[in-house]
Amino acid sequence: MINIPMEHALIVAILLFIIGLAGALMRRNLVYILLSVEIMLNAAGFAFVVAGARWMQPDGQVMFIFILTMAAAEVSVGLALILRIYHNLKTMDADDVSKIKPN
Amino acid sequence: MQNLLWTIPFLPLAGFLILSIGSKWLSPKASSTIGVSTVAISTLVSILVAIEFISGIGTSHIFKQELGTWIDVPGFSSNFGFYLDSLSMVFVFIVSFVGFLIHLYSAFFMKDDEGIVRYFAWMNLFMASMLILVMADNLLMLYLGWEGVGLCSYLLIGYWYKDPKNGYAGRKAFIVTRIGDTAMAIGLFFLFRSFGTLNINEILHYVSLEWISGSPDAKIAALLLLGGAVGKSAQLPLQTWLPDAMAGPSPVSALIHAATMVTAGVYLIARTNLIFSMAPNVMLLVAAFGAIILVLAGFSALVQSDIKRVLAYSTISQIGYMFLALGVGAWSAGIFHFFVHAFFKALLFLAAGVVIIRLKEEHDMFKMGGLRKKMPLVFYTFIAGAASLSALPLVTAGFFSKDKILMDAFLSPDSGIVLWIAGLVGAGLTALYTTRMIILTFFGDMKIEPEKISSKALNIPLVILAVLSIVAGYIEMAPLHLFSKFMAFSLPELNQPEGAALGFILPVISGLVVFTGIFLAWYFYQKRPEVTYNIKKSAIGSFLYNLWFNGWAFDEFYDKVFVQPYIFLARINKNDFIDLFYTEISNLMIRLNDWALLTQTGRLRWYLALITVGVIFGITIIIFL
User: Fold this and answer.
1) Is residue B301 scored above 50 in pLDDT?
2) CA B141/CA B129 separation, integer angstroms
3) Do A72 and A80 contact (CB within 8 A), yes or no?
4) pTM for the predicted model, two decimal places
5) Residue A98 in contact with partner chain B when CB distance is under 8 A
6) φ and ψ at residue B71, rounded to 5 degrees
């Protein structure tokens, strides 16, 4: 088994997180924003797994399973919200649904 | 019967509740039936109580009834308790009996008025408050009734509220009496601080034990109570509200502003007579104020053209007589004048009400005239009341009461002669303006044809009151002096030297003064009206006319000294200096809120970016600090 240094793995995690964040900030389609959030979650989960492997502990993988479960719940709620928004406003554009603006 | 004491005030109160809750559904007929019948039953009860009271006078002079506790906290308790001695018996009888006659009159007088339910509700509330006032056994309950009648007075003066003038008159009455009421409330606090109780008998008991005559405490207490009395009774210096109070319907003026409420001050002073006896200077002040106002108001009544304003000034003047009597310690004479005054003044107002309603709301006496033939019954009853008011010797009740006051004033040790002369001048003026009123209203040429109304029902109270204004004086006739003996059970008797010779001379003098007044009125207004006209046209005549017409310019004086400066100050401080500071704080908050609102764009990605920046910022701080 090739020994990959922890730093390299963490850099991958950071890159993944930045990709997700950039996607969430730049995309206007709500579905893509949700996707980007998933990427960020996976980046965090990946960092847990890396840390678990570094210290030879199972906790990192346990955390990842938690994150996976939570992500599934979050996606189901988020998708339901997006569907409702699409039904009511006929748009998926996050900037167009800024209805709470005061004036 | 003693156990039924509570029903006397509570029946009208029940009437008020029924009328005010059911005002939407009750027909005019039903509401006047309810309004009159509650007072009628209450009057019946009070007459039965009076019969039992008088028949049992040898054994117990006092009826008491406790209904329960009103307020009970550590250091203070007050009961709903009724207390009936001969003083309150007279007031209860007058209030309920005259009140009943006026209610009966109102049922026909007001029958076409759209607000009749409201009218009877307030009249019943007034009756309840007034009866509570005179039957209360403690000062707190007396104050409850006191404020209740003030409220009803305000409501009923402004009864025809669509005319802003009436509302103004109501507010004026309310605010001016409020000044006196405030003094009285402070007086109650003062008495409570001194003795730790508000029960009238306990207070009087402590007063006689602990205070010495002329002590500062007694003076302060007497002055504060006097403040309340002059406000409610329209005496110097708070008399200005009563002439304006004539804006209300005539029966209201008869009930509230002639027979009952305005004499509450007399009742208060008589009820707390021991406190006043302990302060001889204040007593002298009461007598002096009474003497001054009875002359001032007499002059004002002389030049009024509104028939009701004549009667209003005459009421002020007659209550001045009562204060004069109280001030010289002639308690029962003052109460006797109240007793008689209630009959004839209510009668005069009710008769004036008939005249006014038949002349289509015409108040100006100079536009009346010649009504003698058109409404004979009103004319004769009016004559009876007027004769009693001007104290026509021997045949009228007013003569006996006024003469007794004059005699007691004359015999009082301090400055009795001055007070007596003032009283005589007042008596002459009373005869003068009363005769003038009769001449202008009922004699001469007819200027307005009176409308036909079926006034049979209106006549009943007029006739009863007319009979009473003539015969009521006989219960005080020598040698029996029944009324004084009755009063002696609750009020101290006046100790004075017996003046047998004076006993005949004084009434003769006052009788001559009255006839002089009547003669002068006949000469100036019937025989030679052009003389009066010329006097009125001359410089000094027109000055005096204007001065008297405006009630000695008290209103202007108060306006200049109190109202205008107050309005001036209020205008300067329109923005409220102190409040500015707090307004600025709230303005700052609003501005900060505006800035914070700018971040609330509703743009999801913008929020996300801000969160990211915030998290990076937070992590940076944690790492590097």
Assistant:
1) yes
2) 10
3) no
4) 0.79
5) yes
6) -125, 135
Least confident of B31-40, B60-69, B138-147, B387-396: B60-69
Q: Which of B353, B265, B257 is nearest to B314 (CA)?
A: B257
Confirm or reject contact between B564 and chain A (CB < 8 A): no
Q: Which contacts (CB < 8 Å, 24+ apart) does range A92-95 have?
A: A92/A29, A92/A30, A92/A31, A93/A28, A93/A29, A93/A30, A94/A28, A94/A29, A94/A30, A94/A33, A94/B603, A94/B604, A94/B605, A95/A28, A95/B603, A95/B604, A95/B605
The pLDDT, as a whole number, for residue B12 is 92
Residue B491 has pLDDT above 70, yes or no: yes
Identify the DSSP state of B60. -
Domains of chain A: 7-89 (1.10.287.3510)
- Asked if B469 contacts B347 with a C-beta cutoff of 8 angstroms, the reply is yes
Alpha helices of chain A — where are they, by DSSP H? 6-26, 30-54, 59-89
- Of the candidates A25, A95, A102, the beta carbon closest to that of B597 is on A102
Has residue B416 got a pLDDT over 80? no
Report whether B439 contacts B83 (CB < 8 A).
no
pLDDT digits (tens, 9 = 90+) for B430-447: 999 999 888 888 887 877
Q: For residue B606, give the nearest of A33, A81, A85, A82 by alpha carbon.
A: A33
d(CA B225, CA B188): 8
Q: Two tokens at A93?
A: 């554009």
Find the CB nearest B603 among A24, A26, A95.
A95
